[in-house]
Design brief:
The protein contains 1 helix and no strands. It has 23 residues and is an all-alpha fold. It is rod-shaped.
Protein backbone atom coordinates (compact mmCIF):
# COMPACT_ATOMS: atom_id res chain seq x y z
CA UNK A 1 0.00 0.00 0.00
CA UNK A 2 1.65 3.20 -1.18
CA UNK A 3 5.05 1.72 -2.01
CA UNK A 4 5.29 3.72 -5.24
CA UNK A 5 4.26 6.89 -3.41
CA UNK A 6 6.93 6.22 -0.78
CA UNK A 7 9.58 5.81 -3.50
CA UNK A 8 8.53 9.04 -5.19
CA UNK A 9 8.56 10.84 -1.84
CA UNK A 10 12.07 9.56 -1.13
CA UNK A 11 13.30 10.68 -4.55
CA UNK A 12 11.75 14.11 -4.06
CA UNK A 13 13.42 14.50 -0.67
CA UNK A 14 16.79 13.54 -2.17
CA UNK A 15 16.26 15.96 -5.06
CA UNK A 16 15.44 18.71 -2.57
CA UNK A 17 18.64 18.03 -0.63
CA UNK A 18 20.70 18.15 -3.82
CA UNK A 19 18.98 21.39 -4.83
CA UNK A 20 19.86 22.92 -1.47
CA UNK A 21 23.47 21.77 -1.71
CA UNK A 22 24.12 22.67 -5.35
CA UNK A 23 21.38 25.22 -6.02
Amino acid sequence: DGTIADNVDALLSIANRLALEFG
